[in-house]
Amino acid sequence: MGKPPNLYAFAGNDELAPSLRAYILDAQNNAIERHNVFRVGVSGGSLPKVLGKALLQDNNADGKVQFSKWEIFFADERAVPLDHEDSNYRLVKEEILDKIPAEQSQPTVYPIDVKYLDDVQEMADQYEQKLVSVFAARDSVRLPMFDLLLLGCGPDGHTCSLFPGSPLLRETEAWVLPISDSPKPPPKRITLSLPVASHGIKIAFVATGGGKKEIMKQIFDTEEGRQLPCGLINTFAQERVSWFVDYPAIEGVSFPARRGSL
Ligand SMILES: O=C(O)[C@H](O)[C@@H](O)[C@H](O)[C@H](O)COP(=O)(O)O
């Protein structure tokens, strides 16, 4: 048995952001030392805004965000044009990429191929091929290993676009999966599979607000919650997982949280 996931709690996003930044910088520096690149998978929802807050602070105070070494992939994406209001790419662009000061280099970003908006299976296959080309030939790695996965947690316990009870949770081979009937709109999406989403060197969840407290209680304090997508990642990845939450999100949670710092 490994160690349990880490649960870090803060008064609000302003207090959470510097610790998230320190955690990301540590993952970045280790990755650059290991292979001179930082491969990150990122979700949508409320996450990109918090990431912007964490990453776009003064770049010299506590280490440097080296965006030129970043390769950003989407842990899940909606099958919509890249400038559509539902696009996770658009969110990441508006909250982070567009705000990187001009003197810094931009990261390499891997959006979905919008040629396949009408065929999510093809879109998922194409995105998987992108991962294959970056993470090595398919037959030489069983799973791509992200240096860091930055994920959200839905009020039903979903993460990426892996929803509770979905047959997609049983996938063991594919890296990227199509969805045509997502319970959260829009219905058509692609997502990393559970084995890939559990395989990051580090995995961070960001979950804030009182709307998350019931699901946090389930995920951390109940057996049933451990079967939800977020709970399964906790179980599979154990101490490689860190949760960054605010106090309202863990009100009533018994699982011990470290409050106020990493
Ligand atoms: O495309 C999506 O729907 C998101 O990637 C999704 O997986 C998100 O991370 C969670 O729904 C949490 O969203 P909030 O942080 O907004 O609650």
From TrEMBL:
Function: Hydrolysis of 6-phosphogluconolactone to 6-phosphogluconate.
Glycoprotein as UniProt keyword: no
NCBIfam families listed in its UniProt record: pgl
GO molecular function terms noted in the UniProt entry: 6-phosphogluconolactonase activity
Domain Glucosamine/galactosamine-6-phosphate isomerase residue range list: 13-243
InterPro entries assigned to the protein according to its UniProt record, in alphabetical order: 6-phosphogluconolactonase_DevB, 6PGL, Glc/Gal-6P_isomerase, NagB/RpiA_transferase-like
Keywords: Hydrolase
CDD domains hit by this protein: 6PGL (cd01400)
Pfam family, one: Glucosamine_iso
One example of a Gene Ontology biological process annotation: carbohydrate metabolic process
Catalytic activity: 6-phospho-D-glucono-1,5-lactone + H2O = 6-phospho-D-gluconate + H(+)
Pathway in which the depicted protein is active: Carbohydrate degradation; pentose phosphate pathway; D-ribulose 5-phosphate from D-glucose 6-phosphate (oxidative stage): step 2/3
Protein name as it appears in the record: 6-phosphogluconolactonase
Family: Belongs to the glucosamine/galactosamine-6-phosphate isomerase family. 6-phosphogluconolactonase subfamily.
Biological classification of the source: Eukaryota, Fungi, Dikarya, Ascomycota, Pezizomycotina
Enzyme Commission numbers on file: 3.1.1.31
